[in-house]
Each structure stands twice: as C-alpha cells, then as structure tokens.
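Exercise 7b. Backbone tokens:
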C-alpha cells in the first residue's frame, strides 16, 4: 500500500514477454517524495515465496551512459525477480524520470537517492536482507552507500568506476565524439567543456546535463582510497569481450573486497560493454553472461 509520500502512476513499463509474465510478479512504477522533488521508482515483485527473502536495489549508470540500455536493465530486473528476489529500480534526482534540478545534482544527493530507494524497498516488501546492484557510476555509488548503511548486506558491482577523474575525462571525450558522429554542428572540444564546468556551468552529455558540482565531486573520487571495503559479500563483474584489455583498476578494487570477505568474487562477462550502446550507436537489450554470472553468485550466496 502506498503511503502519503508515494504517488502511484500509470504503468509506463516495457511490455513483458509471455515467459517473463509467467515467471515474475507485478511491476509497480511510482514516485516517492524527497527533499528536491520526486524520485521515480519501479518495483518488481518476486512471484515465488522464498526464505530468506532477498531484495535488490538497482543503482543505474548516469543517463549519458544509460541511453540505449533500458531494455537490458529491465530484463535484468525481471530475471532477478523470476529468481525469487524483490527488485527496485530508480532514477537519480533531476535525471530521466525523477524530478529536481539537474543543475544542482551532486554526489551526496545521489547517495541520498540510493538510501531513499533502499528504504522504500524495505518498507514495501517483506525482505530479510537488501543488497545493492550498481552499474558503472551506479556501482561506485552503491559501494559508497554500503559504507554509509550497515544494513546493506551484499554488493554487486557491474563495471565500477575506480577513478573519478579518468571517468569524467572519458565522459567529456565521448560527448564530443557523439556530437561529431551525429553531425549536430557543435565544434566544442573536451577541453572547452571542461572549462565550462570549471566556470560553474552545466554541460550537456548525450542530451542530459552534467552539473559543475557533480563534475567536481567525481574528480575527487578514488574508490580504492575513499571506499572502506568492509566485510561484505561482493561480486565485482567486469564486461570485457574477447581479447579486449581489462581494466587493472577494477581488478584492484575487486581484490580489496575479496581480501576482506570469504564471499567476494571477481568475474568477467565475455561480452561487449553495454554502455557503448548509447545513441547513435544502437540499443543494447541483452547481455546474458552478465546476468547469468550475477544469478550464479546470488545462488551461491544463499
């Protein structure tokens, strides 16, 4: 039942196939109030009754890497629900469907969003434990949120961002390349976008705003130093196709978690990176190894 701080909305979710409809429970999109507006959430209820009951909050990438991946994350949520987990997906404040000012976006705001989403899942579903599943920037946010909330009992990190400065540099370069491919007439360089941010102005990445504050916050992120790798079960999953070069920084982060717990694992999904599917490069709707490895680790965790 929705509380006064929650607002149910008309379903605007991806149609389910017959097999998905048979295997999963109801899907409920809704908004929940927060200090800066409303957070858009979708709850995927497990169909089967399982004990101990687990819940997963999905922390997405930032929207400039999210575009084209919607179907993948929806299908991942449905696979987890079919496996007996309650899942809650959400959009960060001021991004995509959530309200709020994108110009005011900050790291602490997004960490508060993760906390709010986690609290919502606990209040809406009878779960015995809750974990965080994050992708890209969302994986780093999930790890930081777990340090703040000892009630988070496990972590699944898909391609986490260990170094914020390097990540921001790549985001700006990708934005310049996308504009060039799209032929929008923009001749801005990544250095010019960086200067704009340093002046306190927001910049557009793939149709979404990156605030100067959020940019500055990410410049200071060094996951190996900032995140306290506490004793928490953790899967670090890196997407790396064929002979593609793996990220040694991700491997270092994974070792920090695996050294701290017996339930830590570094795994590789031999598939093309899902975040490369941003327009105009196409739509990513399936990464079976990524999801299968995740489900396998969760089954072992049980």
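Sequence design result:
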């Amino acid at each position: 039942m929705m509380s006064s701080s929650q607002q149910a909305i008309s379903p605007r979710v991806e149609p389910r196939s017959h097999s998905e409809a048979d295997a999963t429970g109801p899907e409920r999109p809704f908004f929940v109030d927060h200090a800066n507006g409303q957070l858009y959430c979708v709850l995927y209820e497990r169909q089967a009754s399982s004990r101990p009951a687990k819940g997963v909050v999905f922390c997405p990438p930032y929207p400039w890497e999210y575009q084209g991946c919607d179907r993948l994350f929806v299908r991942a949520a449905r696979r987890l629900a079919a496996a007996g987990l309650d899942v809650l997906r959400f959009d960060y404040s001021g991004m995509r469907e959530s309200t709020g000012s994108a110009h005011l976006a900050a790291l602490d705001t997004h960490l508060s969003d993760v906390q709010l989403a986690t609290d919502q899942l606990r209040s809406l579903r009878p779960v015995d434990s809750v974990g965080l599943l994050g992708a890209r920037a969302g994986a780093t946010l999930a790890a930081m949120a777990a340090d703040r909330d000892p009630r988070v009992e496990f972590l699944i990190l898909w391609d986490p961002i260990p170094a914020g400065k390097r990540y921001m540099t790549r985001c700006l370069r990708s934005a310049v390349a996308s504009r060039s491919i799209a032929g929008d007439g923009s001749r801005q360089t990544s250095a010019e976008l960086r200067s704009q941010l340093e002046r306190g102005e927001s910049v557009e990445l793939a149709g979404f705003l990156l605030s100067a504050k959020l940019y500055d916050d990410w410049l200071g992120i060094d996951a190996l130093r900032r995140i306290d790798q506490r004793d928490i079960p953790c899967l670090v999953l890196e997407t790396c196709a064929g002979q593609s070069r793996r990220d040694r920084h991700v491997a270092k982060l994974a070792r920090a978690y695996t050294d701290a717990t017996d339930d830590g694992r570094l795994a590789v999904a031999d598939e093309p990176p899902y975040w490369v599917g941003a327009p105009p490069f196409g739509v990513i709707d399936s990464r079976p190894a990524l999801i299968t490895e995740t489900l396998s680790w969760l089954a072992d965790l049980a």
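Instructor comment: The longest strand covers residues 27-34. The mean pLDDT is 84.
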